[in-house]
Amino acid sequence: MSVSQRLSIALALLTWMWAWAAHPSLVVAGEHRSEGSQSAVTSKVLGMVSLAGAYEKPPRLKVFKSRNFCGPWVPNETLLVDSEGGVRNAVIVLHPLDRPARVQPSSIVLDNRKCAFSPHVQVAPVDSELRLKNSDPILHTVHARLGQETLFNVGLPRWRQVTKSLTRSGIVRIDCDVLHTWMSAAIVVTASPFYAVTDQHGRFAIDQLPTGEYEMEAWHEKLGTRRRRLVIAAAGQTTVDVVYSVSQRMP
Asked: According to the model, what pLDDT value does residue 236 have?
Protein backbone atom coordinates (compact mmCIF):
# COMPACT_ATOMS: atom_id res chain seq x y z
CA MET A 1 0.00 0.00 0.00
CA SER A 2 1.42 3.39 -0.98
CA VAL A 3 1.89 6.31 1.41
CA SER A 4 -0.89 8.26 -0.34
CA GLN A 5 -3.36 5.38 0.09
CA ARG A 6 -2.55 5.09 3.81
CA LEU A 7 -3.09 8.86 4.23
CA SER A 8 -6.46 8.65 2.45
CA ILE A 9 -7.67 5.84 4.71
CA ALA A 10 -6.53 7.67 7.85
CA LEU A 11 -8.28 10.87 6.73
CA ALA A 12 -11.54 9.00 6.04
CA LEU A 13 -11.41 7.37 9.50
CA LEU A 14 -10.86 10.71 11.23
CA THR A 15 -13.77 12.25 9.29
CA TRP A 16 -16.13 9.43 10.35
CA MET A 17 -15.09 9.73 14.02
CA TRP A 18 -15.72 13.48 13.96
CA ALA A 19 -19.18 13.02 12.41
CA TRP A 20 -20.13 10.41 15.02
CA ALA A 21 -19.04 12.65 17.89
CA ALA A 22 -20.95 15.63 16.48
CA HIS A 23 -24.14 13.72 15.58
CA PRO A 24 -24.42 10.55 17.69
CA SER A 25 -28.21 10.22 17.02
CA LEU A 26 -27.40 9.33 13.43
CA VAL A 27 -26.18 5.91 14.49
CA VAL A 28 -28.46 5.17 17.45
CA ALA A 29 -30.93 2.39 16.54
CA GLY A 30 -34.52 2.39 17.70
CA GLU A 31 -34.86 6.13 18.19
CA HIS A 32 -38.09 7.91 17.28
CA ARG A 33 -38.51 11.68 17.23
CA SER A 34 -41.94 12.91 18.25
CA GLU A 35 -43.62 16.23 18.77
CA GLY A 36 -43.05 17.64 22.22
CA SER A 37 -39.77 15.87 22.93
CA GLN A 38 -36.37 15.75 21.30
CA SER A 39 -36.35 11.96 21.09
CA ALA A 40 -38.16 8.97 22.51
CA VAL A 41 -37.53 5.25 22.53
CA THR A 42 -40.24 3.33 20.73
CA SER A 43 -42.11 0.21 21.73
CA LYS A 44 -44.56 -2.28 20.24
CA VAL A 45 -48.02 -3.36 21.39
CA LEU A 46 -49.30 -6.81 20.52
CA GLY A 47 -52.68 -8.17 21.43
CA MET A 48 -55.79 -10.14 20.63
CA VAL A 49 -59.48 -9.29 20.54
CA SER A 50 -61.65 -12.24 21.54
CA LEU A 51 -65.25 -13.14 22.25
CA ALA A 52 -66.01 -15.16 25.38
CA GLY A 53 -69.05 -17.41 25.56
CA ALA A 54 -71.07 -19.57 23.20
CA TYR A 55 -70.72 -18.04 19.76
CA GLU A 56 -73.30 -18.60 17.04
CA LYS A 57 -72.17 -17.82 13.53
CA PRO A 58 -74.48 -15.22 11.97
CA PRO A 59 -76.63 -16.54 9.11
CA ARG A 60 -75.82 -15.83 5.49
CA LEU A 61 -77.33 -12.72 3.95
CA LYS A 62 -80.14 -13.13 1.47
CA VAL A 63 -79.75 -11.50 -1.94
CA PHE A 64 -82.83 -9.69 -3.24
CA LYS A 65 -81.45 -8.21 -6.46
CA SER A 66 -78.88 -9.14 -9.14
CA ARG A 67 -79.20 -12.81 -8.15
CA ASN A 68 -78.06 -13.98 -11.59
CA PHE A 69 -74.62 -12.58 -10.73
CA CYS A 70 -74.53 -12.52 -6.92
CA GLY A 71 -76.30 -15.80 -6.24
CA PRO A 72 -79.08 -16.32 -3.65
CA TRP A 73 -76.83 -15.75 -0.58
CA VAL A 74 -73.62 -13.93 0.35
CA PRO A 75 -71.39 -14.41 3.42
CA ASN A 76 -72.15 -12.39 6.54
CA GLU A 77 -69.01 -10.50 7.62
CA THR A 78 -70.50 -8.52 10.48
CA LEU A 79 -69.15 -10.88 13.18
CA LEU A 80 -66.33 -13.25 12.25
CA VAL A 81 -64.91 -15.36 15.09
CA ASP A 82 -62.40 -18.21 14.77
CA SER A 83 -62.37 -21.48 16.70
CA GLU A 84 -60.32 -19.93 19.52
CA GLY A 85 -62.64 -16.94 19.95
CA GLY A 86 -60.49 -14.47 17.99
CA VAL A 87 -62.55 -11.63 16.52
CA ARG A 88 -61.74 -10.42 13.02
CA ASN A 89 -62.21 -6.80 11.87
CA ALA A 90 -61.96 -5.12 15.26
CA VAL A 91 -60.25 -1.72 15.11
CA ILE A 92 -57.66 -0.75 17.73
CA VAL A 93 -56.63 2.90 18.09
CA LEU A 94 -54.13 4.26 20.62
CA HIS A 95 -54.71 7.94 21.42
CA PRO A 96 -51.71 9.71 23.05
CA LEU A 97 -52.70 11.45 26.30
CA ASP A 98 -49.48 13.26 27.17
CA ARG A 99 -48.66 14.97 23.87
CA PRO A 100 -50.34 16.03 20.62
CA ALA A 101 -50.55 13.48 17.84
CA ARG A 102 -49.57 14.19 14.26
CA VAL A 103 -51.02 11.99 11.53
CA GLN A 104 -49.83 11.43 8.00
CA PRO A 105 -52.74 11.07 5.55
CA SER A 106 -52.73 7.96 3.39
CA SER A 107 -54.65 6.48 0.47
CA ILE A 108 -57.07 3.59 0.86
CA VAL A 109 -59.36 1.72 -1.54
CA LEU A 110 -62.92 0.48 -1.16
CA ASP A 111 -63.90 -2.00 -3.86
CA ASN A 112 -67.22 -3.60 -4.79
CA ARG A 113 -66.29 -7.23 -5.33
CA LYS A 114 -68.56 -10.29 -5.56
CA CYS A 115 -71.52 -8.25 -4.32
CA ALA A 116 -69.74 -7.12 -1.16
CA PHE A 117 -67.64 -4.14 -0.11
CA SER A 118 -63.96 -5.03 0.18
CA PRO A 119 -62.44 -4.64 2.68
CA HIS A 120 -65.40 -4.86 5.03
CA VAL A 121 -63.65 -2.82 7.76
CA GLN A 122 -60.64 -0.55 7.51
CA VAL A 123 -59.07 2.41 9.29
CA ALA A 124 -57.44 5.57 7.94
CA PRO A 125 -55.98 8.84 9.29
CA VAL A 126 -57.92 12.08 8.93
CA ASP A 127 -57.51 13.75 5.50
CA SER A 128 -56.74 10.47 3.78
CA GLU A 129 -57.98 9.84 0.25
CA LEU A 130 -60.54 7.09 -0.37
CA ARG A 131 -60.65 5.62 -3.87
CA LEU A 132 -63.96 4.00 -4.75
CA LYS A 133 -64.08 1.32 -7.44
CA ASN A 134 -66.35 -1.44 -8.72
CA SER A 135 -64.97 -4.78 -9.88
CA ASP A 136 -68.43 -6.25 -10.50
CA PRO A 137 -70.23 -6.10 -13.88
CA ILE A 138 -73.32 -4.60 -12.20
CA LEU A 139 -74.14 -1.15 -10.86
CA HIS A 140 -73.33 -0.38 -7.22
CA THR A 141 -73.50 2.75 -5.11
CA VAL A 142 -71.39 3.88 -2.15
CA HIS A 143 -73.52 5.74 0.37
CA ALA A 144 -71.31 6.94 3.24
CA ARG A 145 -72.72 8.32 6.47
CA LEU A 146 -71.14 9.80 9.58
CA GLY A 147 -73.84 9.36 12.19
CA GLN A 148 -77.05 10.44 10.45
CA GLU A 149 -75.24 12.75 8.05
CA THR A 150 -74.57 11.70 4.46
CA LEU A 151 -70.98 12.42 3.49
CA PHE A 152 -71.37 11.27 -0.12
CA ASN A 153 -73.49 8.98 -2.25
CA VAL A 154 -71.75 7.86 -5.43
CA GLY A 155 -73.02 5.69 -8.27
CA LEU A 156 -70.40 3.26 -9.55
CA PRO A 157 -70.81 1.46 -12.82
CA ARG A 158 -67.85 -0.81 -13.48
CA TRP A 159 -65.97 1.73 -15.59
CA ARG A 160 -66.07 4.52 -12.99
CA GLN A 161 -63.67 5.31 -10.14
CA VAL A 162 -64.12 8.20 -7.70
CA THR A 163 -61.82 9.67 -5.03
CA LYS A 164 -63.16 11.25 -1.85
CA SER A 165 -61.39 12.92 1.08
CA LEU A 166 -61.97 11.70 4.64
CA THR A 167 -61.78 15.05 6.40
CA ARG A 168 -63.52 14.23 9.70
CA SER A 169 -62.82 11.63 12.34
CA GLY A 170 -65.43 9.08 13.33
CA ILE A 171 -67.01 5.85 12.13
CA VAL A 172 -68.13 6.09 8.52
CA ARG A 173 -70.85 3.54 7.73
CA ILE A 174 -71.32 2.54 4.09
CA ASP A 175 -74.26 0.96 2.26
CA CYS A 176 -75.32 0.27 -1.32
CA ASP A 177 -78.55 2.01 -2.31
CA VAL A 178 -79.55 0.10 -5.45
CA LEU A 179 -81.48 -2.50 -3.43
CA HIS A 180 -78.29 -4.35 -2.49
CA THR A 181 -79.50 -4.20 1.10
CA TRP A 182 -77.11 -6.87 2.37
CA MET A 183 -73.98 -4.82 1.52
CA SER A 184 -72.25 -2.88 4.30
CA ALA A 185 -68.81 -1.63 5.31
CA ALA A 186 -67.18 0.66 7.84
CA ILE A 187 -64.18 2.98 7.81
CA VAL A 188 -62.81 4.26 11.11
CA VAL A 189 -61.26 7.69 10.49
CA THR A 190 -58.88 8.68 13.27
CA ALA A 191 -56.71 11.59 14.35
CA SER A 192 -54.16 9.19 15.86
CA PRO A 193 -51.26 7.67 13.89
CA PHE A 194 -51.33 4.47 16.00
CA TYR A 195 -53.96 1.97 14.84
CA ALA A 196 -54.58 -1.56 13.55
CA VAL A 197 -57.32 -3.90 12.37
CA THR A 198 -57.40 -7.44 13.78
CA ASP A 199 -56.67 -10.33 11.44
CA GLN A 200 -58.64 -13.57 10.99
CA HIS A 201 -57.46 -14.80 14.39
CA GLY A 202 -58.22 -11.57 16.24
CA ARG A 203 -54.57 -10.52 16.50
CA PHE A 204 -53.13 -7.05 16.06
CA ALA A 205 -49.79 -5.25 16.31
CA ILE A 206 -48.93 -1.55 16.58
CA ASP A 207 -45.27 -0.56 16.49
CA GLN A 208 -43.20 2.63 16.58
CA LEU A 209 -44.97 3.72 19.77
CA PRO A 210 -43.15 6.40 21.80
CA THR A 211 -43.18 5.77 25.53
CA GLY A 212 -46.01 7.57 27.30
CA GLU A 213 -49.68 7.36 28.23
CA TYR A 214 -52.42 6.30 25.82
CA GLU A 215 -56.14 5.67 25.74
CA MET A 216 -56.65 2.39 23.93
CA GLU A 217 -59.94 2.23 22.05
CA ALA A 218 -61.25 -1.06 20.63
CA TRP A 219 -64.24 -0.90 18.29
CA HIS A 220 -66.27 -3.61 16.57
CA GLU A 221 -69.43 -3.05 14.55
CA LYS A 222 -71.43 -5.67 16.52
CA LEU A 223 -69.59 -5.77 19.84
CA GLY A 224 -69.27 -2.04 20.49
CA THR A 225 -66.45 0.00 22.00
CA ARG A 226 -64.05 -0.76 24.85
CA ARG A 227 -61.59 1.77 26.30
CA ARG A 228 -58.75 1.50 28.76
CA ARG A 229 -55.68 3.47 29.80
CA LEU A 230 -52.33 2.12 28.68
CA VAL A 231 -48.86 3.18 29.82
CA ILE A 232 -45.85 2.42 27.65
CA ALA A 233 -43.02 2.85 30.12
CA ALA A 234 -40.01 1.43 28.27
CA ALA A 235 -38.78 0.08 24.99
CA GLY A 236 -39.73 -3.46 24.13
CA GLN A 237 -43.02 -5.25 23.69
CA THR A 238 -46.31 -4.91 25.56
CA THR A 239 -49.18 -7.40 25.31
CA VAL A 240 -52.76 -6.19 25.71
CA ASP A 241 -55.88 -8.32 25.19
CA VAL A 242 -59.48 -7.19 24.73
CA VAL A 243 -62.26 -9.60 25.69
CA TYR A 244 -65.88 -9.12 24.73
CA SER A 245 -68.72 -11.20 26.16
CA VAL A 246 -71.45 -12.86 24.11
CA SER A 247 -74.00 -11.43 26.59
CA GLN A 248 -72.77 -7.89 25.80
CA ARG A 249 -73.33 -8.14 22.05
CA MET A 250 -75.10 -5.25 20.36
CA PRO A 251 -78.31 -5.97 18.37
From this structure: 84
